Amino acid sequence: MSSILEINNLSLSFGGVKALQDVSFQVPENTVTTVIGPNGAGKTSLFNCISGFYKPQQGTIRYQGEILAGVKPPVRAAMGLARTFQNIALFRGMTVLDNIKLGAHVHMKSGLLGSLAYFGAARREEMAVRQHVEQHIIDFLEIDHIRRKPVASLSYGLQKRVELARALAMRPKVLMLDEPVAGMNREEKEDMARFILDIREEWGVTVLMVEHDMSMVMDISDHIAVLNFGQVITEGLPSEVQNNPEVIEAYLGTSDMDSLRKKLNPECEVA
Amino acid sequence: MDWLFFGEISLAGLAMGGLYALISLGFVIIYKATKVINFAIGEIMMFAAYLFLAFAGGMEMSPWVALPLAVLGGSVLGGVIEKVMIRPMLGESAISVVMVTIGVASILVGLVELIWGADPQLLPSFLPRKPVFIGEMYLAPKIAYGFLIGAGLLIVYLLYFRFSRGGVALRATASDQAAAYSMGINVRRVFNLSWVFGSLAASLAGVLVAATGGLSPQFGAIGLSVLVVVIVGGLDSILGALVAGLFIGWLETVAGAYLGGEYRMPATFAVLAVILVIRPYGLFGTHEIERV
Amino acid sequence: MRIGDAKQSYEADEAIWTSSTQKIWLAIFLFALAAFPFFADSYLLYMGCLVGIAVISTTGLNILTGFTGLISLGQAGFMGVGGYTVAWLSLNTALPFPVTLLLAGLLAAAVGILVGLPSLRVKGLYLAIATLAASVFLHFIFAQWESVTGGMGGLSLEPAHLFGLTLQSDFEMYFVIVPLAVLMVLAAKNVFRTRVGRAFIAIRDRDISAEILGINLLRYKLMSFALSSFYAGVAGGLFAYFYRVVTPESFPLSMSIFYLAAVIVGGMGNLLGGILGAAFMTLIPEALNLLTAALTPFYPNAPIFMSPMLEIIFGALIVGFLIFEPHGLAEIWHRIRRFFSLWPFRN
Predict the structure, then answer these.
(1) Which end of chain B, C or N, has fewer beta carbons within 10 A?
(2) Residue C345 pLDDT greater than 70, yes or no
(3) Dihedral over alpha carbons B225, B227, B232, B238 (to 10 degrees)
């Protein structure tokens, strides 16, 4: 299976702080790939690099074989890279429907003059988008009962779903989800997991997730990469990753002080 | 090139700049503590100047009694404005708070016109009249002594904020309200006092400027120049207020003398435009970084 | 959401006026607008025209500040560009007035784009101050570029010509200003039914997310400036034709503040709010006028107090609305409507 997204030797630092150090891994096409790691491991920084907000000091990101360098975020959106955020980034001044339609922005064409006139090309485009959104997204994510509500009035779980809907309206090839089930209850998590799997199946989208809920990650991921202190510890199938001693150490810690010391300072002689 | 003339103009400009620095310091104190851009600072100055007019003119008090009273009045006004109109707006968007200060400015202008009328007024003189000479250059005494008084207060303020507990409290509240609160700093009081002290500085400057140039309900327009000063210096920078204040005061006076009065505002705003392009956060301001 | 009002098609759902009650009220309102001049005296007609102009300008500013979140203190400057353009064109060319008005709007839009360029580097209140600087520069140009703008004395205009009719009286101007205002408000509403309007709101709410969704920030911010300034330019042009004279003092900084206040008092980001705010702010001075006239027999000094009282009321309105009713008149209107739509039930 080819990789739709390839991260090669990515390094990112802010002043003296090294957020990412020589990070390399693959995101195979049409999989659910998850990046896991403790807090502060650099996962959001990684996403921000892929989105185009941070410029890595070193390394490349290949999307569909092409290197993404200096490409601005709006252009990446048009290329098929969609994303949700850790802190919900919905537009509070709009309804659910408008938020979702905004996702389709890149694929629409109406300009200022067309919009002022409305009747004619702009209207046809609006109706087409509305149709598409209703049939494929709103029904699919089961949010038809809230479509006219202002997003500020929705519960947290529903807001996350609307954010997912908006990302889907971008007709993405790669969907980046930053902690999609954080703060949800069991039922909501199961729903979300189901949606993610359906998205992969029915839409042919590649899902790249950052997530902390291990059971969900192990259940639905096809491929996992583990990040710690800005470095990739390992990547592979869920079963492989689960049994990797380094991963266990990173999450649970270790009482073995020697190996910890060695890892932190390779030149230091262990007493 | 008449260097003597240039020197005299420059001196006058710098003296004015010193007063600008004082007003801007008041502005920066308010901004640092409460993050409010106080568009009404010119009108607070104006109000204090009118109070002086009332005390020293109408009530015929000695100017040296009227001055502290007027400054006190201006400070109290600042405190009242904060308590009654700014505090309820805590948490609202910046534009809303700014609009409130614009509204307050309007109220003050109307009030002043209602009580004292729309005609320009002269303040009773109280500064020494002897002409001042620096070398060969002549400096109008009102301007010179005004500058000295203003500079005196400026130095007091700088020392206070650098070394006293109050100053530290201000800086702490400015950088992190919640942390300051949990350290036992009475944040509400810091807010209110910042407005009081900021208005104090502005009020003194107001009386001094009015003593030089006259007073009318349009006096608050000086706030526009002050705005440029704080943007150029950096909204939260005391050093910036000083440096930019001196510079803008000098520039305005020089532009007015050499190009004509109508060029004063455009010259000042041209500097603003340049700063916004090359260093939007001002010469010494802090740039806030947004987290994605 | 209206009860018992299900739609059969997406088009019906997306229409501006969805129920038949709304459409009937709209028809009544439009009819009243059209019939008004025949029953109104000259003073009311004058007010009607002024409100029409204010509605256009306020709607423009609302687009920029209320919907896109870009605070502008330069509205008066843009109106001035429109006013002076119309004046110059009417004095130096034989272009008919619809063309001069269009050109006024376009030139104002161009200036708006120029003023909006700093939005690439600065945000929020810094941008507002940049617009203030633009306003000062424009004012300077109006006063100093004597060959074109007539300097401090300004320019005076001939009445507008339309299809051979000369538009002299307020009655005639009304039938130009008000339909134009209605059209322009409708056009604005249309914008917010499409992707352009949504992009504006997205920029206001969370511009970083907007970028990720594919919105080119600079492009849309400049578009907002251009559209808003176009409206201001048209309003300024109408102002010029209405008063038949433009001077540098016709478009002072206080006018920019007036329009900002109208947007806030009416309700930011709400087109109906813009209309209500414009009407309200225009009528307040007149109400005060009437009050003063009524009081003068008892207090002969009353007229002297009118100007400062106006300032105080103006300021108090701004402060009062911001503290107590931040969503403005539009919110009050909606509350009244809700009350009546559910009446006689409470909830």
Answers:
(1) N
(2) no
(3) 110
Q: What CA–CA distance (Å, rounded) separates C203 from C213?
A: 11
Query: What topology is assigned to C38-342 in CATH?
Result: ABC transporter involved in vitamin B12 uptake, BtuC (1.10.3470)
Residue in the block written with tokens 């027999």: C297
Q: What is the mean pLDDT of chain C?
A: 86
Contact across the interface for B99 and C122, Cβ inside 8 Å: no
B228-268 pLDDT tens trace = 999 999 888 888 889 999 999 999 999 998 888 888 888 99
Question: pLDDT for C21-31, tens place per residue?
Answer: 778 888 888 88
Q: Into which CATH architecture does domain A1-80+172-244 fall?
A: 3-Layer(aba) Sandwich (3.40)
pLDDT at C212: 83
Residue-range domain boundaries for chain B = 10-219
- The number of helices, as runs of H, and strands, as runs of E, in chain C is 14, 4
pLDDT over 90 (residue A270):
no
Does residue C205 belong to the interface with chain A, where contact is any CB pair within 8 Å? yes
Place of tokens 């990412």: A20
Encoded tokens for A187: 């039922």
Residue with token string 């500020």? A152
Mean pLDDT of B1-29: 89
Among A164, A160, A156, smallest CA distance to A136 is for A164
Where exactly are the structural domains of chain C? 38-342
CB pairs under 8 A between B and C: 121
Burial call C254-263: b when 16+ CB within 10 Å, e when fewer:
ebbbbbbbbb
Predicted local distance difference test score (pLDDT) of residue B230: 92
> Which pairing describes strands C245-246 and C155-156: parallel, antiparallel, or unpaired?
antiparallel
Residue given tokens 């400009």 in the structure block: B13
Higher pLDDT, C121 or A47: A47
Give the pLDDT mean for B14-25. Answer: 92
Residue A234: in which H helix or E strand, if any? strand A231-236
CATH 3.40.50.300 residue spans of chain A: 1-80+172-244
Q: With 50 as the cut, is the pLDDT of residue B292 above it? A: no
What is the pLDDT at residue C335?
A: 87
Residues of A in contact with C212 (CB under 8 A): 51, 73-74, 77, 83
Cβ atoms C57, C259 nearer than 8 A: yes
- CB-count burial class (<10 Å; 0-12, 13-18, 19+) for A192: buried
Q: Would you say C28 and C253 are in contact if contact means Cβ atoms under 8 Å apart? A: no
A48 at the B interface (CB within 8 A)? yes
Return the biggest CA–CA distance within chain B: 61
pLDDT band at residue C276, thresholds of 50, 70 and 90?
A: very high
Question: CB-based burial of residue A238 (10 Å sphere; 0-12 exposed, 13-18 middle, 19+ buried)?
Answer: middle
**Average pLDDT rounded to a whole number, residues B194-205:** 92
Average pLDDT over residues B107-120: 89
Give the model's pLDDT for residue A214.
Answer: 83
- Tell whether the model's pLDDT for residue C1 goes beyond 80: no
Chains A, C: CB pairs < 8 Å: 109
State the greatest distance between any 2 C-alpha atoms of chain A, in Å, as a whole number. Answer: 80
| Residue A99 sits at the chain B interface (C-beta within 8 Å) | no
Digit-coded pLDDT (tens) for A158-175: 888 899 999 998 889 999
B176 or C297: which leads in pLDDT: C297
Long-range contacts, B90-95 (Cβ 8 Å, 24+)? B92/C322, B92/C326, B94/B35, B94/B37, B94/C124, B94/C125, B95/C65, B95/C71, B95/C124, B95/C125, B95/C128
Of A115, C56, A117, C18, give the one whose Cα is nearest residue C26: C18
